[in-house]
Design goal:
By secondary structure, the chain is of the alpha+beta class. The chain contains 9 helices and 18 strands. The chain folds into 2 domains: 225 residues, 3-Layer(aba) Sandwich (Rossmann fold), CATH 3.40.50; 87 residues, OB fold (Dihydrolipoamide Acetyltransferase, E2P). Helix 2 runs parallel beside helix 4.
Length: 328
């Protein structure tokens, strides 16, 4: 039987506040799923209900044929890696990683053998006798990951696991997480508010807003074909275009930007450059006019410098109708 995770009309209320408003979601076994959305959208509450650390107000959660609602966290076939890593400060690395096996009653020799295997898996061999306070943020993350994996869960739950790391380490660790998920071939469910992180990691992304699911799709579809204005705005890299009574999404790199000259393009928007942001190989030009207060165009840095655009300059923006994606 496949270990698909399924949520059926799941709701979570805190008093009179509905944090989760009836979510239906099916995550195939072996997926890398990212729950993505702004702070307060309900993604962590959803993760904690799957883990068993929050009670479900209404609805059902299944893993394969097992209904999880009334099972303890230890009996769900899931394991959770917390945002702050939650390592025991008084235990050395080896004992932190093997702690769950001690609770399960395994003998010390077997616990040590298994713990060393998972410590090596996360490339932390040689750190077995250190305490958490002697580890860097990235090292703590690796140990927390080893401790979560040692129980051989069918689903690993990760609550913003990269948020405490510096940018360079965050990129490196997300590559390692993706490689590990492929090698283990178990389901990862990863909560993040980072659009870049979700697009880089996920095989399936769930965009949430105010306790509801806005869109479930692969990252390529979510980026190129956002379903709503919220998704288009939150994922970034798009402008919302108003044409009559309809709204469209337009990628910021599908826009031509030209100085006003003798051969002005037809059907173009006249705008003024409000700001310019250099972003390495790309440059973002921020424009405005009476219709659009914050309109973004991104272009290759070589193209930008060839055009020699300046803040305060009036320019024409133009795009192809085929690049407009209709929003619901």
């Amino acid at each position: 039987m496949e270990n698909n995770l399924e949520l059926v009309e799941v709701k979570k209320a805190y008093g009179n506040f509905d944090a989760i408003k009836g979510i239906n979601l099916k995550i195939a076994e072996g997926s890398y799923c990212c729950l993505l959305g702004p702070s307060g959208c309900g993604k962590t509450s959803l993760l904690r209900m799957i883990a068993g650390h929050e009670e479900i107000t209404e609805g059902e959660i299944f893993l394969g044929t097992s209904k999880l609602n009334n099972l303890t966290p230890a009996n769900r076939g899931t394991s959770m890696m917390f945002q702050n890593y939650a390592l025991f400060p008084h235990l050395k690395v080896l004992d932190n990683v093997s702690f769950a096996l001690k609770i399960m009653g395994l003998p010390a020799s077997e616990r040590k053998k298994e713990a060393l295997k998972y410590i090596e898996m996360v490339q932390m061999q040689g750190f077995e006798d250190r305490f958490p306070e002697q580890l860097s943020g990235g090292q703590k993350q690796r140990i927390a990951l080893a401790r979560a994996l040692i129980t051989k869960p069918r689903v690993l739950l990760l609550d913003e696991p990269l948020s405490a790391l510096d940018p360079a380490l965050r990129v490196m660790m997300r590559t390692e997480l993706k490689q590990m998920q492929r090698e283990l071939n178990i389901t990862f469910i990863h909560v993040t508010h980072s659009q870049e992180e979700a697009l880089a990691l996920a095989s399936i992304a769930v965009v949430m807003n105010e306790g509801k699911v806005e869109q479930i799709d692969n990252p390529l579809t979510i980026y190129n074909k956002p379903r709503s204005a919220f998704v288009s705005d939150f994922i970034g890299g798009h402008n919302i275009i108003l044409e009559g009574k309809k709204m469209f999404s337009l990628r910021t790199d599908n826009i031509s930007l030209n100085s006003i000259g003798n051969k002005d393009p037809k059907n173009a928007e006249k705008m003024k450059i409000a700001d310019i942001e250099f972003q390495g190989s790309r440059v973002k030009v921020i424009l405005s006019n009476q219709k659009y207060t914050h309109f973004n165009v991104t272009m290759n840095d070589a193209v930008f410098f060839k055009k020699d655009l300046k803040i305060g300059e009036a320019v024409f923006c133009s795009w192809s109708v085929k690049d407009l994606h209709p929003l619901q």
